[in-house]
Design brief:
Length: 341
């Protein structure tokens, strides 16, 4: 029971922080984006919405994955427990498809940065349509994965046979009864296979971007060039985040092949990649300077409020003193300079 409370607190904390940070990022991208990234902000909004919904779903389902030979059980401790197995499984499927979408979005962002350095910024409509195109594989994943859901009673019986000591009465159980079915294989391959070509393309685009920033900089203003470098650094760091997902996949496979099995490891399968939406938003808020400056100004106003009356009175009182001091220094200077005439 203590373990369940810790797990719920973990997902609730991450989900709440993730929603707040990505809401801030969404606001800043809409209202505080400089002119140099007015078009690119569409992709930033896409990231913010993806990570915001991911944070909510992770908190809503609070998942635990239990490998069962050629099947798997999904145990949900979150609020979806009160909505039934279908909503829980649909939410889990939505979470997985958002992860796939975030990887494709990274690829689109690198492609955009490479394109803009040679051809100029595309139209908002063109960027939006490209976003819809890269969402297609994720949407297919969402639909297909829904057909992999097995009967909850069958999954529960499999759990009782293999893990008779597990107390799962206060949870909602769903899962996949046949991991070798065509729809299950397609879903698994769609979650794993695209990672390699996506990251290969990202490395190629990154190399091209660095080359263009090093060679073709005479037509770029220093401020524009700095923004390009900041965005590239943010994208590079964000591209490293999905490696947390590989940690969860590794834990799943070592338990699936019966190398080791433990309830904590089952919880860590999803708990390890859970901070990705938070880290992604922090990277954007910190490395995109206009957003960082806007947050610092907001934080300063909240922590160090200046009364309006006091501000005006102090300013009015200082102005004459400043003028007198300048005049005094000017007179002293004239007196100290010898007269050569």
């Amino acid at each position: 029971m203590i373990g369940v409370i810790i797990l719920l607190f973990y997902y609730t904390a991450l989900g709440t922080i993730g929603i707040i940070l990505n809401t801030l990022l969404l606001y800043l991208s809409i209202f505080r984006s400089p002119s140099q990234i007015k078009t690119y902000r569409i992709l930033i909004i896409n990231f913010a919405l993806t990570d915001m919904f991911s944070s909510f779903l992770m908190m809503f389902i609070a998942p635990r994955i239990i490998p069962l030979d050629f099947a798997m059980a999904h145990v949900f401790y979150g609020l979806c427990h009160y909505t039934g197995p279908f909503i829980c499984y649909a939410s889990y499927s939505s979470l997985l498809h958002l992860f796939i979408h975030s990887m494709w979005s990274l690829l689109l962002s690198f492609a955009y940065r490479n394109y803009i350095l040679s051809s100029g910024p595309p139209s908002n409509l063109k960027v939006f349509l490209c976003g819809l195109v890269i969402y297609t594989p994720s949407f297919i994943q969402l639909i297909v994965f829904m057909f992999t859901a097995g009967d909850p009673n069958t999954i529960m019986n499999m759990l009782k046979i293999k893990f008779p000591n597990y107390d799962l009465d206060i949870t909602t159980i769903t899962g996949i009864t046949d991991a070798l079915s065509p729809v299950a294989i397609f879903s698994i391959l769609n979650l794993t296979i695209p990672v390699f070509p996506i990251y290969s393309a990202i490395l190629i685009f990154r190399r091209k971007i660095l080359k263009k920033l090093g060679e073709n900089t005479e037509h770029l203003r220093s401020e524009t060039k700095l923004i390009h470098k900041q965005l590239l650094k943010a994208l590079t760091l964000q591209a490293c985040l999905p490696f947390l997902f590989t940690g969860g996949v590794f834990l799943f496979y070592i338990q699936a092949i019966r190398l080791i099995s433990h309830p904590i490891l089952e919880c860590l399968i999803c708990a390890i990649p859970a901070p990705i939406p938070i880290l992604s938003s922090i990277i954007s808020l910190y490395h995109i300077r206009p957003y960082r400056q806007a947050l610092l100004r907001l934080f300063t106003r909240i922590t160090i409020p200046i009364p309006q009356n006091e501000h005006h009175s102090s300013a009015a009182g200082l102005t004459p003193k400043y003028k007198v001091s300048v005049l005094s220094l000017s007179r002293l200077h004239r007196l100290s300079v010898p007269n050569n005439s």
